[in-house]
Amino acid sequence: METTKGFVMGAALTIASAMALPAHAVFIGNIQGGTDFPQGAVSFADVVESYSPPVAGPSAPHQGSFNALGLPNYVGVNSCASQAACTFVSLGAGGSIVVRFVNNLLTGSNSDAADLWIFEVGPAIEDTFVDISTDGITWNPVGKVTGSTAGVDIDFFGFGSGSSFAYVRLTDDLNEGGTGSGGTAGADIDAVGAISTIRVDVVPEPATLGLLGLGLLALVRVRRRIG
Question: What is the pLDDT at residue 3?
Fold first, then answer.
């Protein structure tokens, strides 16, 4: 009986361990740079909650807010014929965008490593204020990125691995860029990725499903023997 119990416990632990296996870090970036994302493509923002360019803002082809979602894909083309042909969204001078993570949450790392990566693209370096929120209502400022691809350490602002955030707000620094207008006025956002993140949509990979099936089959056999 003790041997049987030990076998059952071992099978259960095997299943649990298999389902908890971390993903391998993947280097993700565009032509201007990138970094390692432990959870891969799932790390990037999924939904645009709001986009607020100024009246004298970017031209229409550069106002495709959906271009701030998913993997970074900027290839160096700055003048776009349409939103669909663009790989980034321009905020306009003083404009902002709020994106949300759906299948993961941004967390701290309990270290001074970057936890959040902002892909701001284009030839001009334009500063962007960064705020994070759990509910999209109460916002916590976590500094500013100074153009190009840049990371933010949210631990520096008091948010460790026990903190989690679904929303990121990016606001163009009006004082840095002035009140100018133009096709790509303001910060140009290609992607927003959570380097330190927890998955909330974990689906076992095929290999994990195989281990799960074997574990369950073993448990069924043991139960039959006991019965």
Answer: 44
